[in-house]
Amino acid sequence: MKKEIVISYHDDNVRVALREDEKLVEFYVEQEENSQKVGNIYKGKVKDILPGMQAAFVDIGFSKNAFLYVGDILTNDRESNEEKIEKLLTPNQDILVQVTKEQMGTKGARITCNLTVPGRYLVLMPFNNYIGISRRIEDEYERNRLKSIAERIKHQHYGIIIRTVAEGIAEEKLHKDLDFLLGLWSNIEDNYKSYTSPSMVFSDLDLVGRALRDLFDKQVDYLYIDDKTQYNKIRNILSIKSPKLIDKVKLYTLKNPIFYQFGIDKELQKAFDRKIWLKSGGYLIIDQLEALTVIDVNTGKFVGSKNLEDTVIRTNIEAAAEICRQIRLRDLSGIIIIDFIDMPKDEHKELILRLLEEEMKKDHTKGQILGITQLGLVEITRKKIRKGIYNAMQQKCPTCNGNGRLMNQFTENMFLEDKIKNYVFLNPSKAYKIKANCPKLRFLTDKKCQLEEELNCHLILEEIKKEDGFEIMAFD
């Protein structure tokens, strides 16, 4: 399987795409003013204790207080898991916590006291004293080898998790990674003692750094990035951490936007569609609610060539792979219900479940297939960590009061800028006339000088009254 990471880097936004066999399977975006908080560690102050919910609200400096459940306070040092939250916390108490879920809508961030500090090969667990090995390392000999190494290098009071990328890595490198993490933890402890609450005492890596740490491994064929400074930074990091991966990093130098060159923009826009067509002619309908996503499988234009049973199973097989890709791409979470086309035979149902399990092994976010209900529906749960692309790149429609969806202004501007650059790339000229509606014109007016310098051309802007108006034309 061919794997590629494509990174589009700008001062005000960073986009990371993971492709498998030239299909987009994962996408992440980070705006300058709205960077991800998951993984950051804070010195917080307990504000409210809710005995009826066995939870507390903690001020960590966000616009909304974070939510801490009693089960996320207890550690292995506790003798009992039945202690009440009012016995564990007091109002105005300082507490060290880590964000596990982003703040979304009216809900504050979810936090935990069971901290984890991730490195390249290992994850340090300061408050848990056990060894864990990634479930994606399946070779039993390799699992035993890594466990033996972990037992030798592990600090007696801390636990560690061995990450997938540690497969085949020598003990010396694992030891160095652990020493680095112990140094980070020591710094976190010092910050906690010296900072006042609420304060951030540890910041996780930015999006490029997380992509390098969490996505870039020996299974990836190439990593493409369009920014020379970040390209050099990545190579410098890899020269220390993973020298064998350096030659896989490529600097993208064409003037055409990198996402257009790889066809990612088109795939991204399809990810907002409710209907997803399959190659056979069948299709999926994806309806996403706040805590539930429903996916319906239909034969559509596919009528098969043998009999109904063959048509159904072939459609369901194709749908299973595409559903798993859409779950990763859209970052669907919570409860996912799939209504496959009815399959009377048990062996066909078992085949679909096995296919789903195999495809979900590729997913970096933990998910679980619960089986088929009495109504013939497949139930899946997937951990909710961050905003999916619906929430990160869309906003509620003010016209329909949230009953429909559309791209937010940031996303529209992002696509608009790439569209202009792509047109200039395909139609070289000294000058271009751009006609746009008022919102687009405001954005282009602010960007005009920067675009002219970057594209080495002159732009003439003109307003048109069409609601979705945009035209661009080259002239000498």
TrEMBL record:
NCBIfam families noted in UniProt: RNaseEG
Matches recorded under Pfam families: RNase_E_G
Cofactor(s) needed by this chain:
Mg(2+)
Question: Which molecular function terms from Gene Ontology are attached?
Answer: hydrolase activity; metal ion binding; RNA binding; RNA nuclease activity
| Superkingdom of origin | Bacteria
Q: Quote the cellular component terms of the Gene Ontology held in the record.
A: cytoplasm
Alphabetic keyword roster: Hydrolase, Magnesium, Metal-binding, RNA-binding
**Record's protein name:** Rne/Rng family ribonuclease
**Source taxonomy lineage?**
Bacteria, Bacillati, Bacillota, Clostridia, Eubacteriales
Q: Does the keyword RNA-binding apply?
A: yes
Provenance organism: Proteinivorax tanatarense
In this chain the S1 motif domain maps to: 39-116
Name the InterPro entries on file: NA-bd_OB-fold, RNA-bd_AU-1/RNase_E/G, RNase_E/G, S1_domain
Q: Which GO terms describe its biological process?
A: rRNA processing
